Amino acid sequence: MDMLTKKLGKAEAYAVAYRHESLYEKFGCDEAYIRLRPAMLVIPGGGYNHVSPREAEPVAIRYLALGFDVFILYYSVGKDIAASNPLEEAEECMKWIRSLDGIDTSKVSCVGFSAGGHLAALLSCYGGSDRPDALVLSYPVITMKEGCHEGSRDMITMGDASLRDYYSVEEHVDGAFPPTYIWTTADDASVDPVNSILMFQALKKEGICCSLHIFANGVHGLSVASRESGKENPAVSAWLDESVGFLKHVLDIRF
Question: If DSSP codes are grouped into helix, strand and coil, which group holds residue 150?
Answer without folding.
Answer: helix
